Amino acid sequence: METQRLSTKSRISYGLGAVGKDMVYMLSASYVLYYFQDLLGVSAIAMGVILLAARVFDAFNDPIMGVVVAKTRSKWGRFRPWLLIGTVTNAAVLFVMFAAPPRLDAAGLTAYAAVTYILWGVTYTMMDIPYWSMIPAFTEGGRERESLTTLARTCAGVGSAIITIVTMIAVPALGGLFAGQDAGARMIEITGFKYFAMIVAVLFIAATALVCVNVRERSTADMRTVTVKEMFRALLQNDQAMTVTVGIVLINCSVYITSNLVIYFFKYDFGTTSWNDAYVLFNTFGGAMQVLSMMAFYPLLRRKFSSLSIFYICVGMAIAGYAVLLMLTFTAMSSVYLLFIPAFFIFSANGMLTVVTTVFLANTVDYGELRNGRRDESVIFSMQTFVVKLASGVAALVASICLSVNHLQSGTEVAEADKLVDWSVGVSQAAKTGLRMTMAVVPIVGLIAAFLLFRRLYVLTDERVETIAREVRARREAEGE
Question: Which of 67, 148, 258, 410 has the smallest CB count inside 10 Å?
């Protein structure tokens, strides 16, 4: 039974599902460390270990969930039941995670963070695996499948950008509304995160409901389950997939280190009582650039440059952006608008890199089939999901070490009755320098490593990809496929 052509409604619904899914993911990836460590006082090192351990656990959780989904039989198919169940439970856990009882002691809050974050990861996997695995169940192979995958990754980037832009606009507004304008600065943020998480959770459920209603899988759709052993075997036997995967880890670690620490930079280094306004302006501009780069800059560049050239351009842009950011932090800057210069380069590059690395990964599938006589499509894309999670865990650990070493954490003893607090007062210059170096220099090192890795090992130019595709088709025809 052949798959019918994918309708516009199905494509839009699937894309909106990615928007909701990555709104939830980015809220957790960018703010759970700040919420528990800075606002509630949990040890930075403890949080770093929790976040990394949860991501390593996903290495084993993802394949298990794949097997569960593959063995599911229902009148709604095998993917949609788990997509809906995972979304509802993950949304509930997200709210609970950002609704921690602030009166718990240090040990209680650490345990609360560990339990809720691990549960969040498990329930996210429950919906993430069927979401990506269902693509072959309602698309034809080749261009349509790759086009939908790229669309979904782009929409996921839009979801991430939305969280980047609106979080610290919504959090103080909601906190002031529900905690009262006379509440202390920390309590306003704590309360605001609770209600913002609730709103994001509701939007997440609504977006997934659209997918479940408007995207129909074939009843005969098969699902290739993936084990950890198969993941690493596929990578070891496909040098190009290995190169792209390592490159994704390096790039995403760089991006997530910045996303974890930039709020601390504005709060403890940029300073002043209006630090949140500056942070919001920076993220609004950066998030807009990220979306614009995916929707407009990448297609424009693609008309004149190869995908590999765009990759090098983007890495160079990001490195330049971080270098400018580092230089600006050591000047007597007083305006956030100066930071728009590095933000343009960093966020635009990140948006385009999200798209181009997905294209690269799709290219390695045909390469692997030609080289090994086996098409590891599901294996390779399952690995992408894992390595992105792993990168966020590693980045969180690096960020937590930076915070611990530099003793950056808001103190409950600081004028809690006054919601206008300049948190940068009393922070040593050495601590500020350590924060700046971690936020800018470490990402530069990661991006240079990614650049050198691709220059040395990645060989799938546009011309070679077309040649490989022709050879794969010829082989299939010769084999009677």
Answer: 67
Tens of pLDDT, residue by residue over 82-122, are 999 999 999 999 999 999 997 899 999 999 999 999 999 99
The 3-state DSSP class for residue 108 equals: helix
Written as one letter, the residue type at 424 is S
Q: Is the pTM of this model over 0.70?
A: yes
Residue recorded with tokens 């500020």: 432
d(CA 54, CA 66): 18
Give the CA angle between residues 288, 324, 172 to the nearest 5°.
Answer: 45
Separation of alpha carbons 160 and 157, rounded Å: 5
With 0-12 CB in 10 A as exposed, 13-18 as middle and 19+ as buried, what is 213?
A: exposed
Query: Helix crossing, 340-372 with 239-264: angle to 10°?
Result: 160
Measure the CA–CA gap between 145 and 143, rounded to whole angstroms: 5
Of 105, 127, 128, 124, give the one whose Cα is nearest residue 116.
124
Q: What is the mean pLDDT of residues 54-66?
A: 76
Which tokens is 123 given? 């329930």
pLDDT at 1: 38
Give CA–CA dist 396/259, Å, rounded.
Answer: 10
- Secondary structure class of 202 (helix, strand, coil): helix
180: left (phi over 0), alpha (psi -120 to 50) or beta: left
**Cβ–Cβ under 8 Å, residues 44 and 110:** no
Q: CA angle 292-295-301, nearest 5°?
A: 95
C-alpha 143/C-alpha 139 separation (Å) is 10
Residue 174, exposed/middle/buried by CB under 10 A (0-12, 13-18, 19+)?
A: buried
